[in-house]
Design goal:
Layout (H helix, E strand, L loop, with lengths): L1 E5 L5 H10 L4 E5 L3 H8 L3 E4 L16 H5 L4 E4 L1 H9 L3 E3 L5 E9 L15 E8 L2 E4 L5 E5 L7 E4 L4 E4 L11 H12 L8 H16 L3 E6 L3 H14 L3 E7 L7 H12 L4 E5 L1 H8 L5 H23 L2 E5 L4 H4 L1 E3 L7 E3 L8 H5 L2 E3 L7 H10 L4 H4 L19 H20 L8 E15 L2 E14 L7 E2 L6 H12 L3 E6 L13
Parallel strand pairs: 1-2, 1-3, 3-4, 4-11, 12-13, 12-15, 13-14, 15-18, 20-22
Antiparallel strand pairs: 5-8, 6-7, 6-9, 9-10, 10-11, 16-17, 19-20, 20-21
Helix pairs in contact: 1-5, 6-7, 6-13, 7-13, 9-10, 15-16
Bound molecules: xanthosine-5'-monophosphate.
Length: about 500
């Protein structure tokens, strides 16, 4: 495995991705706990991330000395390169100007990172983002690539297998960056690149058994992919010691509850409590129009219902969650000393603190697409695993204004038609997320000989890679007219349909 030491760069997660894409397992540890992680993992290589600090400043973070003492290969990126130079006897100067954005490096030497990739004399595009720069190399290092602003764009000490680069190979703006990282992982560290989901599954099953012993586990199912994959994996590990709780607040899409219940009780034979909490949710949402108030009410009510069910089941000491890597990754804090803050996600959170249970989170190290791959490995049907993301607060945040049973029903019908047409056109997998939003606006229309005065529906579909940014999806000609006609003809209560072309930013994907 490879240990990635995080110095607080915004893109550290991408390093982990690139390493895993090369078929090598990796974990990220914040620099404060990197020494323990290094000891525990005994990695075959270490990558030092970028970060916002300046190595010249007193008290700026360092890599554990054990990393250099162990004789494993090390690759430093940006701040990571500077830290390595500083710790190994070179010098870093504070930059006055710096270099940001696209740059070109000239390859002036050779090193193992370039195997089968770059040759002397070539120029390659990279993504630079740095203020400080290396002024004097540590003993043993030689420059192998340079740019206008960075004479030491890449430096190498082949004998010790230490590499440093001033630019960011992990971002897509460095087109060959993934290959440089793969060369480090495979050629330099000698890792075989055969890390697979099958291996992950076996390892996790052993870990879950070890952690849980003969204890009981309860798992909240949201209806989404993550909690479902977590539950199936845990069930494979401990069987009937797991009970799933599925809280149905009436804010799910058409057929969703049936699908989850059918899959768990039917296909997997996993004990499942299906809580019909529609009345509780709908009564509580009456009169609530503020988006944050809706979110808060729904989050709190989920917890209340879940907690009550957990009490009924009794004796469970563990709580399972489908938490993913991007949800839990520890962000490195520079202001409050060596403290780390966990990024809070607008999810069905807050359960653990209050319930005083031990957490089982087998997906903590995975990215969304890896969870999907694991789901397929576990035999979950493709239609389930490949589903678009769906927010915890469900349809309630797709009904601006007051949420009622009737409006949920109208939206469910329209949304189902939209998704059915998208699947029929073979576009589902090309879209990150598609859904309908029922607006609190009425418009005048004419149907047959009569006047109508009904609701307006907005359709949304976006392309995205991670949900952080998004662009409106461009449907082929005729598609939106077809969907519009079907919705207006088939769904009572809607007489006008619009398409939302807003990107994120400045919009968000959901409307509330
Ligand atoms: P926004 O609307 O912030 O959404 O652009 C980004 C992604 O997150 C999803 N989303 C949520 N997921 N609980 C979730 O589990 C939530 O409360 C929540 N709110 C938004 C959204 O659907 C999109 O994929």
């Amino acid at each position: 495995s490879i240990l990635i030491i995080d110095f607080g760069s915004q893109v550290t997660q991408l390093i982990a991705r690139r390493v895993r894409e090369a078929g090598v397992y990796s974990e990220i540890a914040p620099f404060q706990s990197a020494a323990e992680a290094f000891e525990r993992m005994q990695p075959r290589g270490v990558i030092l991330s970028g970060g916002p600090a300046s190595v010249v400043d007193d008290g700026s973070p360092r890599a554990p000395q054990a990393v250099f003492d162990a004789g494993v290969p090390v690759m430093g990126i940006c701040y990571g390169q500077q830290v390595m130079m500083q710790q190994l006897g070179g010098r870093v100067d504070k930059g006055s100007a710096g270099e940001f954005g696209e740059a070109y490096v000239a390859v002036d030497g050779d090193c193992a990172l370039f195997d089968g990739l770059w040759r002397t004399g070539e120029q390659h595009q990279v993504w630079m983002s740095h203020g400080d720069h290396v002024a004097a190399l540590a003993p043993g290092f030689a420059p192998v690539a340079s740019s206008k602003g960075a004479p030491y764009a890449i430096v190498a000490d082949e004998a010790r297998r230490y590499y440093g680069m001033q630019f960011h190979p992990e971002v897509v703006h460095t087109p060959d960056g993934a290959k440089l990282i793969a060369n480090f992982a495979r050629h330099v560290c000698g890792l075989s690149g055969d890390w697979t989901m099958a291996e992950f599954r076996a390892t996790k099953i052993a870990e879950i058994r070890e952690q849980v012993g003969s204890g009981r586990v309860i798992c909240g199912l949201s209806g989404g992919v993550d909690s479902a994959v977590a539950a199936v994996l845990i069930h494979e590990a401990i069987g009937e010691q797991l009970t799933c709780v599925f809280v149905d607040g009436g804010i799910l899409r058409a057929g969703e509850a049936e699908q989850v219940v059918g899959l768990f009780r039917g296909a997997y034979n996993i004990p499942l409590v299906h809580v019909q909490a529609q009345d509780l949710f709908m009564d509580g949402l009456a009169g609530v129009t503020d988006p944050e108030a809706k979110r808060k009410f729904i989050g709190k009510t989920f917890i209340d219902v879940f907690e009550a069910e957990a009490k009924k089941i009794g004796g469970a000491e563990f709580l399972a969650q489908g938490t993913l890597y991007p949800d839990v990754i520890e962000s490195v804090s520079f202001t409050g000393g060596p403290s780390v803050t966990i990024k809070s996600h607008h999810n069905v959170g807050g359960l653990p603190e209050r319930m005083n249970m031990k957490l089982v989170e087998p997906l903590r190290e995975l990215f969304k697409d890896e969870v999907r791959a694991l789901g397929r490995e576990l035999g979950l049907p493709d239609v389930f695993v490949g589903r678009h993301p769906f927010p915890g607060p469900g349809l309630a945040i797709r009904i601006p204004g007051e949420v009622t049973r009737e409006r949920c029903d109208i939206l469910r019908k329209a949304d189902a038609i939209y998704l059915e047409e998208i699947r029929a056109a073979g576009l589902y997998d090309a879209i990150w997320q598609a859904f309908a939003v029922l607006l609190p606006v009425r418009s005048v229309g004419v149907m047959g000989d009569g006047r109508t005065y009904d609701s307006v529906l907005a359709l949304r579909a976006v392309s995205s890679t991670d949900g952080m940014t998004a662009q409106a999806f461009e449907f082929p000609g005729g598609f939106l007219s077809r969907v519009t006609t079907r919705i207006i003809n088939e769904v009572k209560g809607i007489n006008r349909v619009t398409y939302d072309y807003t990107s994120k930013p400045p919009g968000t994907i959901e409307w509330e």
